[in-house]
Amino acid sequence: SVAVLQALKDGLKKAEADPSVKAVMICGENGKFSAGADIRGFSSPQTRGVSLAPIVSLIESSEKPVVAAIEGVALGGGLEVALGCHYRVAHVKARMGLPEVTIGLLPGAEGTQRLPRLIGVPAALDMITTGKHIPATEALKLGLVDEIVEENTIEAAIRLANKV
């Protein structure tokens, strides 16, 4: 939603400007990172001026480490947000993917560029063209996530952020 995009943008800019903040952790609520965009919002006039790609680029260009704490799902734009982060920690039951292709859409926030850089072209092409969701264990093997945990993902992401 526009509110989530604006909150990400505002939060990151605030963290960047605050010298006491050493790292940033991005997470979702209620055990879910993000299921991506609501396609009904694509044609909404309220989305003008706030879009996902520049926010993912803002995350990626942060001088402070940004860690994604992935619980539940990171799909579509949610995965693209995680791809913009410098590190990704996923719960063992988390699933990731770019399912928008199944309804004829390509990932629109540069996921088609970031994913191949991270996991290689063959694996990225498979995910991008099929829309399949992969489990955290496979994401770890591919290099999509840096760590998987069975305990509290947010606490693990904070530990990683403090370490880096």
From TrEMBL:
UniProt-listed InterPro entries: ClpP/crotonase-like_dom_sf, Enoyl-CoA_hyd/isom_CS, Enoyl-CoA_hydra/iso
Gene3D superfamilies hit by this protein: 2-enoyl-CoA Hydratase, Chain A, domain 1
The keyword Isomerase belongs to this UniProt entry's keyword annotation: yes
GO terms classed as biological process: fatty acid beta-oxidation
Gene Ontology molecular functions: (3S)-3-hydroxyacyl-CoA dehydrogenase (NAD+) activity; delta(3)-delta(2)-enoyl-CoA isomerase activity; enoyl-CoA hydratase activity
Top-rank lineage group of the source organism: Eukaryota
Xref: Pfam families: ECH_1
UniProt keyword annotation of Lyase present: yes
Reactions this protein catalyses: (3Z)-hexenoyl-CoA = (2E)-hexenoyl-CoA; (3E,5Z)-octadienoyl-CoA = (2E,5Z)-octadienoyl-CoA; (3E)-hexenoyl-CoA = (2E)-hexenoyl-CoA; (3E,5Z)-tetradecadienoyl-CoA = (2E,5Z)-tetradecadienoyl-CoA
Key words of the record: Isomerase, Lyase, Multifunctional enzyme
Family to which the UniProt record says this protein belongs: In the C-terminal section; belongs to the 3-hydroxyacyl-CoA dehydrogenase family.
GO cellular component, one term: peroxisome
UniProt-recorded name of the protein: Peroxisomal bifunctional enzyme
Encoding gene (name): Ehhadh_0
